[in-house]
């Protein structure tokens, strides 16, 4: 039950992120928002993961370089998303954020040599059609 509550909290915070960024973007610089959002998230996870898993939180000492690189990439991704939220209507930023997983099969083919399934290509095509129908780059909100 406790894990379910955490999942609901995470989903709610992720879903409302764009709205809060949009509401505060003019009053608080985006860099400050990013710093506090990522700091709060790290503190929240550090406190709740041990309780949810009943295991102590351990830092991966064997791969510090990988951990730092991945952390920096995630922080950059979140920061760019928040910056985009401040500049464009929420729907436009969310459309591009939501289609990012569809590009995984392209990168897995390029970097890992994994073949793309026909269903992935079909889903990617449908996603592109959806983007074109939504017209996220059109004028107005």
Uncertain segments of ≥5 residues (pLDDT<50)? none
Overall shape: it is globular
The biggest beta sheet is recorded as: none
Quaternary organisation? single chain
**Overall mean confidence score, pLDDT:** 81
- What's the end-to-end separation, in Å? 39 Å
Number of domains: 2
- DSSP summary: helix tally: 6
Rg from alpha-carbon coordinates: 18 Å
Order of helices and strands: HHHHHH
β-strand percent reads under 5%
Tell me the structural class.
mainly alpha
- Helicity level, as a percent range? over 70%
Q: What is the topology?
A:
Elements: H1 2-24, H2 30-53, H3 64-87, H4 90-98, H5 104-112, H6 118-134
Helix pairs in contact: 1-2, 2-3, 3-4
Summarize the model shown.
This protein is mainly alpha-helical. 75% of the residues lie in helices and 0% in strands.
Describe this structure in words.
With 141 residues, the chain is mainly α. The chain has two domains: 1-87; 89-141, no CATH class. The chain contains six helices and no strands. The chain has helices spanning 2-24, 30-53, 64-87, 90-98, 104-112, 118-134. The protein starts with a helix and ends in a 7-residue tail after the last helix. 4% of the residues are buried. The mean pLDDT is 81.
Pick out its properties.
mainly alpha; 2 domains; 75% helix; 141 residues
């Amino acid at each position: 039950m406790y894990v379910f509550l955490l999942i609901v909290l995470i989903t709610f915070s992720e879903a409302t992120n764009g709205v809060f960024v949009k509401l505060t973007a003019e009053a608080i610089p985006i860099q400050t928002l990013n710093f506090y959002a990522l700091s709060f998230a790290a503190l929240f996870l550090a406190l709740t993961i041990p309780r949810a898993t009943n295991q102590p939180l351990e830092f991966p000492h064997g791969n510090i370089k990988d951990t730092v690189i991945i952390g920096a990439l995630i922080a950059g991704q979140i920061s760019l998303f928040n910056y985009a939220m401040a500049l464009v209507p929420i729907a436009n930023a969310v459309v591009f954020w939501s289609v990012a997983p569809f590009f995984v099969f392209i990168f897995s083919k390029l970097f890992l040599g994994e073949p793309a399934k026909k269903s992935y290509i079909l889903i990617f095509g449908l996603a592109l059609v959806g983007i074109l129908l939504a017209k996220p780059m059109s004028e107005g909100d």
